[in-house]
């Protein structure tokens, strides 16, 4: 039997329509959530993501600013802009689109964003709060993964989750969030021996390794939930996940597609973080 497909697009639309009402309510109270996005250079994929963030702000009734800077912008000028936005009252969230050109130190820029405006959840203070389980702005893609699983009606508590990939922006935070939801978590990475054997023990398998179609049916226990965070652009221009969707869906339980799975949740969670930041700033939550 073919698996149930978890539609990130549909779940994302549901969350956004709920958010629209919340924003209207906030605006009536004199608060308009504001997001500033900074794009350095002309990476084509980044340009698309930034446009989609701008559109999401417009659709949800947020105030937005997009700062498009030339690829040779100095780190000093970028930091000066971040600092200005840190002090700008109309801005509740600041996002610097990644990747940055190689002459700019990503860490220095992330560290310069005010913790309470770090809607990417990448600042070390927000990361630390995530580790110790305190309230923080959660990184968008990992938060989107948890939201997808829950909204698909899947129980996380007590399940064995296997996360493949240990990146700072997906693998590590997603494993912490799964633990917070009371899953037992195993992490696998490029040096893991017997990865397929471990993956086959998962009730929930989250894959974020950046290798197109790498995970085939031999990695999946029949009926397991499969969440594909991979986004790989193939030579033919098509987008592929890390999971070989066609073969895996024949054995798995609920599974996310690429595109249309985790991707759309990333921007929706960014909007949610901006809303949270605005409410906190105005002491409305
Ligand atoms: N500062 C950040 N930079 C980057 C992040 C991030 O979370 N913060 N994540 C990615 C890019 N990204 C958002 O910025 C992002 C990627 C993909 C999608 C998405 O909706 N994908 C669609 C397919 C879109 C396509 O055809 O290319 C899908 O999967 O259905 C949204 C946001 C790196 N940089």
UniProtKB/TrEMBL annotation:
Sequence ranges assigned to domain Tetrahydrofolate dehydrogenase/cyclohydrolase NAD(P)-binding in this UniProt record: 139-281
Record flagged with keyword Oxidoreductase: yes
Pfam families in UniProt: THF_DHG_CYH, THF_DHG_CYH_C
Cross-referenced PROSITE patterns: THF_DHG_CYH_2 (PS00767)
Reactions this protein catalyses: (6R)-5,10-methenyltetrahydrofolate + H2O = (6R)-10-formyltetrahydrofolate + H(+); (6R)-5,10-methylene-5,6,7,8-tetrahydrofolate + NADP(+) = (6R)-5,10-methenyltetrahydrofolate + NADPH
One GO MF term: methylenetetrahydrofolate dehydrogenase (NADP+) activity
Annotated Tetrahydrofolate dehydrogenase/cyclohydrolase catalytic domain residues: 6-120
Cited InterPro entries: Aminoacid_DH-like_N_sf, NAD(P)-bd_dom_sf, THF_DH/CycHdrlase, THF_DH/CycHdrlase_cat_dom, THF_DH/CycHdrlase_CS, THF_DH/CycHdrlase_NAD-bd_dom
Keywords, alphabetical: Amino-acid biosynthesis, Histidine biosynthesis, Hydrolase, Methionine biosynthesis, Multifunctional enzyme, NADP, One-carbon metabolism, Oxidoreductase, Purine biosynthesis
Pathway of action: One-carbon metabolism; tetrahydrofolate interconversion
Binding site for NADP(+): 165-167
Cellular component GO terms, alphabetical: cytosol
EC number: 1.5.1.5, 3.5.4.9
SUPFAM superfamilies: Aminoacid dehydrogenase-like, N-terminal domain (SSF53223), NAD(P)-binding Rossmann-fold domains (SSF51735)
PANTHER family from the UniProt entry: C-1-TETRAHYDROFOLATE SYNTHASE, CYTOPLASMIC, C-1-TETRAHYDROFOLATE SYNTHASE, CYTOPLASMIC-RELATED
Record family assignment: Belongs to the tetrahydrofolate dehydrogenase/cyclohydrolase family.
Subunit structure: Homodimer.
Its biological purpose: Catalyzes the oxidation of 5,10-methylenetetrahydrofolate to 5,10-methenyltetrahydrofolate and then the hydrolysis of 5,10-methenyltetrahydrofolate to 10-formyltetrahydrofolate.
Listed HAMAP family: THF_DHG_CYH
Name the UniProt record assigns to this protein: Bifunctional protein FolD
Lineage of producing organism: Bacteria, Bacillati, Bacillota, Bacilli, Bacillales
């Amino acid at each position: 039997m073919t698996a149930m497909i978890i539609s990130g697009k549909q779940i994302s639309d549901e969350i956004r329509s709920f958010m629209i009402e919340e924003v209207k309510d906030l605006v009536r109270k004199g608060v308009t959530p504001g997001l500033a996005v900074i794009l350095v250079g002309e990476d084509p994929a980044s340009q698309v993501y930034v446009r989609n963030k701008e559109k999401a702000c417009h659709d949800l009734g947020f105030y937005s600013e997009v700062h498009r800077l030339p690829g040779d912008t100095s780190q000093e000028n970028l930091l000066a802009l971040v600092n200005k936005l840190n002090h700008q009252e109309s801005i509740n969230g600041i996002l610097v689109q990644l990747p940055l050109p190689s002459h700019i130190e990503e860490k220095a820029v992330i560290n310069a964003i005010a913790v309470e405006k770090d809607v990417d959840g990448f600042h070390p203070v927000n990361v630390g709060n995530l580790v110790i389980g305190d309230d923080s702005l959660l990184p968008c893609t990992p938060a989107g993964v948890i939201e997808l699983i829950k909204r698909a009606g899947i129980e996380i508590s007590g399940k064995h989750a296997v996360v493949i990939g240990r990146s700072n922006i997906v693998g590590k935070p997603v494993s912490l969030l799964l633990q917070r939801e009371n899953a037992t978590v195993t992490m696998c990475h490029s040096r893991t021996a017997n990865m397929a054997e471990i993956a086959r023990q998962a009730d929930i398998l989250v894959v974020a390794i950046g290798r197109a179609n790498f995970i085939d049916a031999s990695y999946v226990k029949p009926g397991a939930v499969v969440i594909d965070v991979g986004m790989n652009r193939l030579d033919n221009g098509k987008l592929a996940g890390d999971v070989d969707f066609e073969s895996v869906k024949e054995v798995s339980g609920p599974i996310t597609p690429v595109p249309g799975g985790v991707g759309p949740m990333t921007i929706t969670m960014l909007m949610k973080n901006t809303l949270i930041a605005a409410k906190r700033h105005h002491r409305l939550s």
